[in-house]
Amino acid sequence: MFLIFRKVLLVVLFMVLIFGNTSNKGESYEYFMKAEYELLQNDFKMAEKYYKKALSLSPDSPTILHSLVDLKIYQGKYSDAINYLERNLILDPDNKEIGLNLYDIYSQEGNNKKAELLLDSLLTIYPDDLDILYAKASTQFSKQEWKELLKTYGAIYEVDTKQNEILLKIYEIGVATANIELVWEILMELKSKYQDPIIHELLIEIADSNGEYLTAISLLIEMLANTGSTDEQLIKLSQLYLRVEKFNDVIDNLFPIYNAGNHSLDVLRMLLIAFSSLDQTENEVIISETLIKEYPELPVGFEALSFAYIQAGDNNKAVEVLLQALTNFPNEVSFPFSLATIFNNSRKFVKAENYYHTALSIQPDLIAAKHALAIMYEDMNDTNRSDSLFLHMINQNENDAGGRNDYAYILSERKESSKDDFNYALQLAESAIAIDPENAAFLDTIGWIYYKLETYQKAEEFLEKSLSINDNNPVILEHLGDIYIKLNKTTEAINIYEKILKIDSDNQMIRNKINNIYD
Fold first, then answer.
1. Is pLDDT of 208 > 80?
2. Average pLDDT of 202-215?
3. Is 341 helix (H, G, I), strand (E, B) or coil?
4. Using CB atoms within 10 A as the burial measure, which of 128, 349, 410, 508 is most buried?
5. The whole model's pTM is what?
6. Is the pLDDT of residue 199 over 80?
């Protein structure tokens, strides 16, 4: 009950404070006690009457005003409660409790402007008070004033640095409201004052998400200098190093914890990438074998080991690994496809064909296998099967730009192709470029077909555009050089051919073309 919580005896003890040192003190006190008695009887009307009489005799008594506020709030008469609270605040403008009570009722009654002004005035008096700051944050949240809310949360953290959840709120709200730059500024300011690893972690997350990997690396190293490092943190640092292709740093970070027994998938995967990128095939083999030993139920170890042997030029060992993998994982399409690729490159076409078909039996829509098989038929001079398979792919998938381009290029390279074949090839190439207009290989194909059709200026146009997209491709460069020869642009042709020799200094065919120009 409302009345149970009133402390009547305290009124007597603090009578002077309540009623002031006036000649009307006794009479005012008498009315006050009558009001208290009427409250005990639940006669609120009479209680209010006596409170008002007491207030008329002691108009500056904060206790009488507070009693009237409690009564009006209990009755649900909030406008009257506001009136008494405002009078009380005038008497004691620095009273935080009165101010927050008045703020709550202003907010409840929708007097938002007054509520905000009151909070601002309280904050000038109590800038570091958590109750007031949280009230301010609540108002800003309801009004969706996200930037101001983030700043208020920053101020709350500075008052109580143990409230780590506030840091998370700053980050989450900043992300959700697209104010991540402000979050960065707030967290950087806090980092300059406090050594809280969560601040570092959030800054690292922001930098990582924004693609600012070097900044993220710097922040993480700074954090580890203060906190020491765990395997998890070293893995995170290595992930960042991997993104900026600092492969030696990846190895320096991870190899010690690998040797200490941490053979997690993350550690093994990143070491594989680093060793592979640095052509350290021996270490790549070691990590791959560890991957197979630790995770025999996963195909990735066999994939990595076979790739390492292929990189090392040991196709026989690669085949052994792939055959074992195919036995262990009969439904994994990458293994027969890799076997087919090895045998195709070795011109063991019968074996290659068998494994391409195995791959397609596992995944019938594997376009890469169909393309490779069709091109292999071309290499075998089996043009009927090559044509049949390419036409099947083109008819089955109208969006197969790669199939159209590959077939067009093959037709342009066939010695027996007629002008009609070249024109059909041009149609295929144009349909491919319509799907992928900025594809350098597709532009090269069209240009080369125009070359075969002896339309050299058109050929030059497409090859130069292709080269503008990929200026390091020896095939594109050679095609453009050959076109320049037909257009009598010998200086340009020599420059192009010499550029190829910088890429492939052992290319005797290009040297012969240069010699023919000088002859």
1. yes
2. 96
3. helix
4. 410
5. 0.70
6. yes
Location of structure tokens 């907010």 = 107
Residue by residue, DSSP assigns 140-175 as: HHHTT-HHHHHHHHHHHHHH-TT-HHHHHHHHHHHH
In this predicted structure, the answer to whether residue 267 has a pLDDT above a threshold of 90 is: yes
pLDDT at 84: 67
Of 361, 319, 325, whose CA–CA distance to 341 is shortest? 319
CB atoms closer than 10 angstroms to residue 93: 12
Query: Residue 213 in 3-state DSSP?
Result: helix
At position 449, the amino acid (one-letter code) is I
Question: Do residues 405 and 442 touch, judged by C-beta distance below 8 A?
Answer: yes
- Per DSSP, helices labelled H in 366-439 are 367-379, 383-396, 401-413, 419-435
Mean pLDDT of 394-421: 92
Burial of 243-277, coded b for 16+ CB within 10 Å and e otherwise, reads eeebbebbbebbbebbeeebbbeebbbbbbbbbbe
The pLDDT of 64-71, averaged and rounded, is: 72
Q: Give 59-121 as a 3 state SS string.
A: CCCHHHHHHHHHHHHHHCCHHHHHHHHHHHHHHCCCCHHHHHHHHHHHHHCCCHHHHHHHHHH
Q: Tokens in use for 393?
A: 């792919």
Work out whether the CA dihedral 135, 140, 141, 146 comes out positive or negative.
negative
pLDDT band, very low/low/confident/very high, at 157 (cuts 50, 70, 90): very high
> How many CB atoms are located within 10 Å of the residue 100 CB?
17
Cβ contact 20:6 at 8 Å = no
Alpha carbons 3 and 6: distance in angstroms, whole number:
6
* Cβ atoms of residues 97 and 89 within 8 Å: no
**Which two three-digit tokens encode residue 502?**
């910088």
Q: For 22, which DSSP code?
A: -
> Would the pLDDT of 21 be above 70?
no
Yes or no: say if 393 and 400 are a contact pair by the CB < 8 Å rule.
yes
Q: Residues 214-226: what's their mean pLDDT?
A: 95
- Angle, CA of 169, 160 and 167, to the nearest 5°: 20
**Residue 514 in contact with residue 498, Cβ under 8 Å?**
yes
Give the C-alpha separation, 185 to 275, whole Å: 38
Contact assessment for residue 236 and residue 207, using Cβ atoms and an 8 Å cutoff: no
335 token code pair: 């293994």
Rg (CA), the chain: 41
Dist CA 328 CA 332 (whole Å):
9
**Rounded-to-integer distance, Cα 91 and Cα 69, Å:** 15
Instruction: Pull the structure tokens for residue 283.
Output: 């270490």
Is pLDDT above 70 for 6? Answer: no
